[in-house]
Amino acid sequence: MKRKCLYSILLILSMLCTCLTGAVAEEQRKIFTDGDYQYAVLDDVSVEIVKYNGKAKKLTIPDMLDGKEVIALDNHAFSACSSLLSVSIPDSVVQINENPFSGCRNLKVIFISPEHPYYAVIDNVLFRKSDKTLVSYPAGKNQCKIWHNNAYRYSQQCYKKYGA
Questions:
Q1: How crowded is the C-beta side of 52, counted as CA atoms within 13 Å?
Q2: For residue 87, which phi and psi values (nearest 5 degrees)?
Q3: Which of 139, 129, 133, 130 is nearest to 159 (CA)?
Q4: 132: CB partners within 8 A, 6+ apart
Q5: Percent of the chain beyond pLDDT 70?
Q6: What's the rounded Cα separation, in Å, for the pair 46 and 63?
Q7: For 77-129, what is each residue's pLDDT tens digit?
């Protein structure tokens, strides 16, 4: 009986160590810089933008950084870019995490190609095509009105001062 209890405790401790090691490894991902962009390498050929430090008014997000394809935008990667009025997202971006443009109080226009396989823009509002979920509502828009036959779901960010 004592032996089973000891084995159980050892098993639990080893599981905890495994979980903690994974969590620490995720927190310590290496961040690189290319111009105004900070990014994390996802694999040998692709990256995720984690922070934009520029002051552009009209921004075209690059499809490549340091020779690697930009495929993702991290949570709040462009947050608080008060100078940003419009942004264009390349087709290479296939993952956009929660509201990458939060706090961009002057952002009015989001552009993405109509042929983009995963995302769409309707009235300058960014949606995920697969489930029609709101991804980003530009804070510079003066209303929080999404129509399109009430087919789109609202996310909480739409109610937080127009996506800010």
A1: 29
A2: -140, 140
A3: 139
A4: 151, 152, 153
A5: 70
A6: 10
A7: 999 899 999 999 999 999 999 889 988 999 999 999 999 999 999 888 898 99
Token pair belonging to 135: 């991804």
Q: What's the 3-state SS for 7-47?
A: HHHHHHHHHHHHHHHHHHHHHCCCEEEECCEEEEECCCCEE
User: What number is the average pLDDT over the span 29-56?
Assistant: 95
Q: Output the pTM of the full model.
A: 0.72
Would you say how long the chain is, in residues? Answer: 164
Distance CA 15, CA 10 (A): 9
For residues 23 and 138, the model is more confident at 138
Q: Write the DSSP assignment of 94-131 as a string of letters.
A: -EE-S-TTTT-TT--EEEE-TT-SSEEEETTEEEETTT
- 98: alpha, beta or left, given left = phi > 0 and alpha = psi -120 to 50? beta
